[in-house]
Design goal:
The protein starts with a helix and ends with a strand. The protein is 43% helix and 16% strand. The model has no long low-confidence stretch (mean pLDDT 96). Bound molecules: uracil.
Length: 422
């Protein structure tokens, strides 16, 4: 294959054959293409996109660049959820045990947080002893017994994507819907789940800032999933304001446990239940998730999962002893509490990382003491900053300069679920 021909075809708006795409993904993964040519080719895709057929082949080639887990021996319907990431988005923590408690198997292969949105693995690691490195045998065994696990995706899964994602990062080709969609879906298809619910976030604290791009991403991923034989549905959900009250690793685990005990913030509960209904429907399980959340079944499955992965579910989780309040500068209704600003501030406090290799603080983060729609008196606390490293406080506070607005009139509450894409 003459690679310059492939670059020219895409550069000039042409369509690539299945064979050309498979050849590229294979050679790229094996480091057989010089970086300048690979970069140039990926940039032509960035500008000219991929049609449905090209995208399905591209994704399939990325899946086939590594192993695909075979979960057929689990003996239960498999279903997973993927979120595109948001501030305070801890939904996987209560959701997965909830769905597993009703008979589904939830194979959650997760990532670490990068940027202002946190990662499930970082959150779970705030539980002392929790092991996020399971072997394939351990995964299958835990799905049979507990019905759910959380683990890091192994290096054998979609290696083409691992290389492509870091490559896109350094050539400025991350923000491209076909490349994002194939990247996310190749990992989810490779994990072996039979069905998948996507939570595509939209708003200031999300990857997708506006509704039309979030919708386009959701539609693209749903099409890829279904074409690959994975039943896929997406919900577009709000990310203009943080989800729940807790932002930061251990704080989000604590809030998730409250949800699993039938308590916790209403928006987290609402989204957990909306996603659980979608997952159960795809899994063909006709059960009411509300009951399982309120009668302790979901919490019992969480405890089993934590124990199975080496954690102590009864341990007192560590919380920062240094805290600082950000207070209302006047009385009125909170009409804006910006997800990006709160996420950035929590990240600067140490809850998130700058580079993949960085450690994160378990205890740093923010509690939204008041939320959009609440009435506050002047001087009343709005945000409680949990401090691990005091040298980070100044820049964390600077991120909050325009984080909230207070007005005499309240606004309509935001809808949590904006649209369903099937
Ligand atoms: N997350 C992914 O896994 N891939 C992307 O391209 C973007 C976000």
């Amino acid at each position: 294959m003459n690679f310059i021909d492939l670059i020219r075809i895409k550069r000039d708006g042409g369509v690539l054959s299945d064979e050309q795409i498979r050849w590229f993904i294979n050679a790229f993964t094996k480091n057989e293409i010089p970086d300048e040519q690979a970069g140039s080719f990926i940039m032509t895709v960035f500008f000219n996109g991929l049609n449905n057929q090209e995208l399905n082949t591209w994704t399939d080639a990325m899946v086939k660049s590594g192993e695909r887990l075979d979960l057929t021996s689990v003996g239960k319907p498999t279903v997973d959820k993927h979120s595109t990431g948001g501030v305070g988005d801890k939904i996987s923590l209560p959701l997965n045990p909830l769905v597993a408690s009703l008979g589904a198997a939830v194979p959650q292969l997760s990532g670490r947080g990068l940027g202002v949105t946190g990662g499930t693995l970082d959150k779970m690691e705030s539980i002392p002893g929790f092991n996020i490195l399971l072997t394939n045998e351990q995964m299958i065994s835990q799905l049979k017994t507990v019905g759910v696990f959380v683990t890091a995706a192994g290096v054998g899964l979609a290696p083409a994507d691992r290389k492509m994602y870091s490559f896109r990062d350094v050539i400025g080709a991350v923000e491209c819907i076909p490349l994002i969609a194939s990247s996310i879906m190749s990992k989810k298809i490779a994990e072996g789940t039979a069905s998948l619910v996507l939570d595509v976030k939209v708003g200031s604290g999300a990857f997708m800032k506006n509704l039309s791009s979030a919708k386009q991403l959701a539609e693209t991923m749903v099409k890829i999933g279904n074409a690959a034989g994975v039943k896929t549905v997406a919900l577009l959900t709000q990310m203009e304001t943080p989800l729940g009250r807790a932002v930061g690793n251990v704080l989000e685990v604590i809030e998730s446990i409250e949800i699993l005990q039938g308590k916790g913030p209403a928006d987290v509960r609402e989204l957990t239940l909306a996603l659980a209904k979608e997952m159960l429907e795809l899994a063909g399980i006709n059960e009411d998730p509300t009951k399982a959340l309120d009668d302790g079944r979901a919490y019992a499955t969480w405890i089993e999962m934590v124990k199975a992965q080496g954690g102590d579910p009864n341990v007192k989780l560590p919380v920062a002893d240094k805290k600082e309040m950000i207070v209302a500068n006047k009385s009125g209704y909170i009409t804006k509490l910006d997800a990006y600003a709160v996420g950035l501030s929590a990240w600067r406090l140490g809850a998130g990382r700058v580079k993949k290799e960085d450690d994160v603080s378990k205890i740093a983060g923010i509690i939204c003491v008041a939320k959009e729609g609440d009435f506050v008196e002047e001087g009343q606390p709005i945000l409680e900053l949990h401090i691990d490293d005091e040298s980070r406080l100044k820049s964390a506070k600077e991120a909050l300069q325009d984080a909230f607005e207070i007005s005499p009139e309240a606004l309509e509450p935001r809808k949590i679920v904006i649209e369903r894409i099937a």
